[in-house]
Design goal:
By secondary structure, the chain is mostly helical. It has one domain (3-180): Fumarate Reductase Cytochrome B subunit (Up-down Bundle), CATH 1.20.950. Helix content is 73%, strand content 3%. The protein has four helices and two strands; from the N terminus they run H-H-H-E-E-H. It has helices spanning 9-44, 46-77, 88-118, 138-173, and strands at residues 123-125, 128-130. A two-stranded antiparallel ribbon has the order 1-2. Helix 1 (9-44) runs antiparallel to helix 2, helix 2 (46-77) packs across helix 3 (88-118) and helix 3 (88-118) packs antiparallel against helix 4 (138-173). It is elongated and about 50 Å long.
Length: 185
């Protein structure tokens, strides 16, 4: 695979950094979602619960910033062509899943930040409190948190599809698709 058929290094680094952060955010989010605030505090204690919430919020802000950066880099550098080209179904599936991943990865932190602000909670970023973009509205907060959680499940499903397709191309088809985003040769 030639360098012209691979994503640029900046794109590959952003991909893998975002992937690690998304797994961290989803893992913490699932703990918080399944146990709730009171259950998490009862199970882990106040200090760990506070750290989980702060970490989840910080990682969410990082994901938003990195996704906006990734989108900008993609608009500037484009997407390398597949060699060999994908078939019709694979091309449509790839474009659809990638597009939905971008939408979900941008929507998740926005929904989470708005839900947090509407709930009257601090939007934390490495210990700093960011300005809440909307006023306190408990009913809106609950709806936004519910939507944030549902989009999280959709995101998890999209990740399973994305990873499954990557493994299919790498281990079954052996067509070089994985090399496009690999950090290694």
């Amino acid at each position: 695979m030639t360098e012209t058929h691979r994503y640029a290094l900046a794109q590959r680094l952003l991909h893998w950094l975002i992937a690690v952060l998304v797994l961290l955010a989803l893992g913490i989010g699932m703990i918080l979602g399944f146990l709730g605030f009171d259950g998490t505090r009862e199970f882990f204690g106040k200090t760990v619960t506070d750290a989980l919430y702060t970490t989840h919020k910080t990682v969410g802000v990082l994901i938003l910033v990195l996704m906006l950066s990734r989108l900008g880099v993609r608009l500037v550098l484009g997407v390398p062509p597949y060699r060999p080209p994908l078939g019709g179904f694979e091309r449509v599936a790839s474009h659809t899943v990638h597009g939905l991943l971008y939408v979900a990865l941008l929507a998740m932190p926005i929904l989470g930040g708005l839900a947090t602000a509407a709930g009257g909670y601090p939007v934390s970023f490495f210990g700093w409190t960011l300005p809440g973009l909307i006023g306190k509205d408990q009913a809106l907060s609950e709806r936004l948190f519910s939507l944030h959680g549902r989009v999280g499940w959709v995101l998890l499903g999209l990740i399973v599809l994305h990873v499954g397709a990557a493994l299919w191309h790498w281990r079954v088809k052996r067509d070089g698709v994985m090399a496009r985003m690999s950090l290694f040769r």
